[in-house]
Design brief:
Blueprint (H helix, E strand, L loop, with lengths): L1 H10 L5 H20 L2 H8 L4 H29 L1 H18 L6 H29 L5 H27 L4 H19 L27 H28 L4 H26 L5 H17 L3 H28 L6 H29 L3 H30 L1
Amino acid sequence: MTGQAYIRTKADKIWTKDFILICLANFFIFLGFQMTLPTVPLFVEHLGGSEQSIGIITGIFTFSALLLRPYVGHALEKRGRQLIYMLGLAIFVFSVGSFGFAVSIAFLLALRIIQGIGWSFSTTATGTIATDLIPPKRRGEGMGYFGLSGNLAMAIGPALGLTLASSISFAKLFMICAGLGVVALILSTRVRYKKAEPSLKKESPGRFDILEKTAVKPSVLLFFITITFGGISSFLPLYTAQKGIGGIEMYFLIFALFLMITRTFAGRIYDRKGHIAIFLPGSFIIFIAMLLLAWLPNSTALFIAAALYGTGFGSVNPALQAWSVNQAPNNRKAMANATFFSFFDLGVGVGAVAFGQIAFLLGYKDIYLASAVSVFLSMLLYTIMLLKERGKQIR
């Protein structure tokens, strides 16, 4: 036992200097991003936009990120991690810092497209960098810890953004968000980046290669889960205001706290027992949270939904990412991350745009009923996948 413990601390150490630095950089860029999540819809409203405009403004960001993910995955393998990561951070800083100067929905829409480009570069890169730094045997656990940096930002960011939006101008708020991106950029210069492994086989230059096929199954499941995220980040502040329910800042805090708590053990469960022990229980908890938000009689129900959503999302997300990356060849880890985040973006984008239409035509309540249906579809699809795999094993 002593020998095994020694090997784990030396060869399988997670908390290295570089890993801590990338977690800190991830925290600051996510903090700046999370502060914009509940405040951009308010800014759109301030500019005279409708629920449909809010959905489009939110969705265009994720769609622009989605379109570039495959390119970013290839660029990370060919040009290295540092260049792509720092470029993404710089684009993010420029775009968010310019939000406050937007005087029309069209101008803000253009800036959101630019922000999506920076976000696709930085988040695909940072996920790949973290994957490089985490020992393969502890990848589920390590990705859970890495995710904590974003979750901590999620605990602070939305509430901080909403508080600042009520006391300072939107221009000052967005400049603060950009400043946090600058801190991430500075920290990124101190990381020692690993070089990507060369491809084992030569690929034809005309090959249509936008996905890592081994990452498609978990990524498709993620798509149905992250649709719910589009409905919450874009419309929950407006929904609670309409119903006269206070405590939206506390919702985001509770959500992120339970997300962080769950990540401390969910990754270890994945490493030991696989996704079968994580996905269905976590998804069912999210399903219940969506039904509770559709009902939403008072602040207590809002806070319980936050705890449930944080627990479910904190379980499912790192497990699906580890599943995506673990199956990919060593020279395709970046493309696996790009595939994973592409479906994440697609889910958020589809959710934001579709729910903008639902809010306009039916009302906010139906957003969360539709979200519950989406989660149910994910659980159903996962069950079908399991049955097919077991059928192949029996043959």
